[in-house]
Amino acid sequence: MSQMVWLNDLIATNKIVVVNGGIHMNNDNKQYNTVNGVQGSAFSFGPNSTNTVNNNQNSDLVDLTRQLIEILKSQEIPTEQKQELEEVITAAAEEATKETPKKAILKSLLASVNSIMDTINKTPALITAYEKWDKFIQGFNPPPV
Amino acid sequence: MTWMGINTVRIDEVLELLAIANEKRFNAYQVALLSNESDIEAVNDYLIYKAQGRFASLSAKIETLCEANNHPDEHFDIGDQLPNYEIECRICGDEYVPDIDNSHLVFYFTNEFSEAVKKKQLTLSKQMVAI
What we know:
The complex is a heterodimer of chains A (145) and B (131).
Chain A: H1 7-12, E1 16-19, E2 22-25, H2 56-73, H3 79-96, H4 103-119, H5 124-138
Antiparallel strand pairs in A: 1-2
Chain B: E1 2-3, E2 6-7, H1 8-20, H2 28-34, H3 40-50, E3 58-65, E4 72-77, E5 87-88, E6 95-96, E7 103-109, H4 111-130
Antiparallel strand pairs in B: 1-2, 3-4, 3-7, 5-6
């Protein structure tokens, strides 16, 4: 394999992103990812269907998580709380984007994020980013049976 | 079907041939060469697309190269962090800390895809014998 697709080239062209040291795909290949003309959204069909999540959502969540963490880093809150929040946000995003996310773990992580958020002083930018992220990540939960 | 200037049907055929040939690991350059495509980036995008989602047929991995001899060494899953400690090259024993700048993207077939392709090949062979 003499010719290689280097990771730093993929990072430079935004095909791959590094979030907190973890290497993730930044799926901007939406031109290939069309299902009945629906792109980057949830879709379902058939009377007994469950919502199937298009994998473009994964890259959207990675982007939203990155934005939230960037805003979080700029907040004037204790470093310890900042780090704790960053860790739990990242863990929740990672769990949500797994092929088979564990609902209980995700729910617990989201509850942790929420409880820490309740204890800190939030700027409007952080509130907006958090609400957007929280609403989006909730979409990864399968509907209750 | 040609999308974004690449023939994805031809690429899919090449992938099936590679799976039948038990090729374990490959990258966009090899697939592009075998499918007569010149746009490596588009081929790589297509392979990445095939490595995502519930029905992925490929598995993308990050392969680190050792510092001393650039031997292809450890594989890491997407989402993993590269170790920040020294690991030993399985080929030359060089101890190195994996570096993003000296890592590249490779693909493997999922077990499901490999099995399905081989099953398809076997069915075709039986049909040929029957004829």
